[in-house]
Amino acid sequence: MNSATTYQQTEYAIDAKGLTKRFGEKVAVNKLDLRIPKGRIYGFLGPNGCGKSTSIRLLTGLLEATEGEINILGKPLLGHEESLKTRIGYMTQKFSLYDNLTVQENLIFVAAIYGFSGRRKQARIEELLAMYDLEKQAKQFAGSMSGGQKQRLALACATLHSPELLFLDEPTSAVDPENRREFWERLFDLCTAGTTILVSTHYMDEAERCHSLAIMEEGRKRADGSPQALMDAMPANVVEVSGSGLRQLKQTLGQHPNILSTAQIGAHLRVLVQKGIHNPVEFISQLSDGRHAQLARPSLEDVFVTCTGDRHVD
Ligand SMILES: Nc1ncnc2c1ncn2[C@@H]1O[C@H](COP(=O)(O)OP(=O)(O)OP(=O)(O)O)[C@@H](O)[C@H]1O
């Protein structure tokens, strides 16, 4: 193997091909291909049951794939599970904290698992308590903390050993918007320090913060790219209609073969019109009996609608 090949291989934190997991008849993950460059935040966006957690468990080596190849941090996962464990962090969907241990004791427990002892252990725990704003809670039982505090402690535990690659499975489902916002700032701090992050979510606004993402449905990847690239490549234009009788209009427009979706957002009807339609605003205005129509900026939710469900465009 020449050095150019080696360099190319290790550029990706995750390089997986044809990843498939079956549970009996159920195909939880279906021929998933993934290439995630180092130092990026990559998202899995999809509804409950689309295979996000199973994919993460396959990529961390906790679950064995039925088919497919996985390379993590430049090494095949198969046969390197043990050595890779120290280079990977994983924050599970339900924070895996010990409720009846204090914040500090939770950190001590995780530190022991990763072989930290003496001064090194103490210094790292002090550093994490300060970094995650948990100094005042150090002696508090984890079970008595707020959702946001638990989340910060779970992140501190998952990153205690300074992993190069961090997996976060729906990390913000139990916290309020302000804590989510703050949590994402911390993720970008980690990313800037060189950590690659794979985060699963079913929140559109969260997915929009990722450098790039995969939209998943029923175990398959429906689309993949940066949020902007996904919006640019959307096979539909977005037209907003305003006026009266929008509920009735929604029914009418929803029947049209060139309309992929309609949804009411406040006082507007948001209509996704197939890209083949030459002048989408005039097209919708005519179908809407002259109600006011105008082009709107696509959102990630629009992308999601066009690449999933019955009317998705392959
Ligand atoms: N151990 C298992 N045995 C059988 N079926 C499973 C198992 N684990 C997951 N599944 C099924 O595989 C599919 C994907 O589940 P998975 O948990 O990966 O989805 P998800 O996108 O992470 O959703 P959620 O956020 O609800 O966990 C689901 O239909 C689920 O019921």
From TrEMBL:
SUPFAM superfamilies per the UniProt record, alphabetical: P-loop containing nucleoside triphosphate hydrolases
Signal peptide start-end: none
A Pfam family assignment: ABC_tran
Keywords: ATP-binding, Nucleotide-binding
Residue span, ABC transporter domain: 14-243
Single Gene Ontology MF annotation: ATP binding
PROSITE patterns: ABC_TRANSPORTER_1, ABC_TRANSPORTER_2
Superkingdom classification of source: Bacteria
Protein name: Sulfate-transporting ATPase
